[in-house]
Amino acid sequence: MTGAALRAAVECRRLVVLSYGLGADSTAILLRWLLDPSSRDFDLSDLVVVTAQTGDEWPETGHLVERHIYPLLAAHGVRTVQVARAGHYERDGFVVLDDTRHPTVCHIGGVYKLSTEMVTMGTVPQVGGTRKCSIRFKGWVLDQWISAHTGGRPYDHVVGFELGELDRVATDREQGRLPSRNPVYPLVEWGWFRSDALAYIRQHLGVDWPKSACTFCPFALTHREGLQRTLPRFVAHPEVAMLPLSMEHAAVALNARQGLIGGQRLVDVLAAHPDAAPLLAEFRRHLDAQEWALYRVRRAFRAKKGDERKMGNAVRDVEVLGAGDRARVLASLQRVAARHGRALEVDGPHRRLWLHRRNDLFPCVEELVTAAPAVVETKKGPGFDKAWAAGLNGPRQLAVVA
Known about the structure:
This protein has 402 residues and is of the alpha/beta class. The chain contains 14 helices and twelve strands.
């Protein structure tokens, strides 16, 4: 066969890319393909299994993949790729953590972690609207690698949505529409719900596969089933729980509305759990051992166009005023409050000095000084100065900057 003929033959081969999220749904697809050749219409040599590592997956998930799935992939010589976001900006690109037909290590540590972004910004993932964290740390990274790998050639993009997620299938078909992409949903084609996927894994591997998620994922906590599944995992693995609890603590210190569970606080939910007392005691010791900082937080709220009764969006300025151990920083906060002749707001373990409370109408502003672990970076959002000036001159301001 000539070189040209060989290239033509390669280009005619079907490309199959499975987005492997490490969870039960995509694991069941992969497992059935490996164990039951009649379940697929392609050769395993044409399959690429690609995982976007966020850096914050549950360790248990990584161990299960290494123990049960990677040996099977290696035995069949399936190309297995792990990629991760390289930095905060898209211009930072992505990193290929592994690209092999004999995978052994699941690199759940990633490179640039989603948790790093959340903690340094003093916030938590939001449950409203689109799943921006998933888009940034999974979708975008996968798209970049797949685009480079396929080079514009048509390919089947296999996604692990099950029969109970037809709304997500419809969204994926619409938002993931590309000329070269053919979305494929094997679980839907097989008529499988998540329970069927779990049963298949249990039958062939003898394990109950956990739901894949970042340890602090709010979507795993905002419904009863998720809480019943996740809270015992935190209690059993306090070393894992420190990250979501710490992330929430810093976010709530800066903004009381930033509870991890759709505004509700994880620490409060755990306080009601009968077995969580040792975990919460360890968390209190963890907080005491951290370096702390004094923060000045200003927010400017814009009005929704044409309606001063509705908020459009907000922009924030966070400034680090000083640092030290917890007792020293809290004492500094108390002295600042005394200078302003105001009492500190007491909100559980949090203390805030309000210098300017927001108005009921928009645009408006708010300003406070608070204490939290020294993890949040000084940062002024784009357009803040203009929005702050507009907020100070907004309708019927009820407070003044002290």
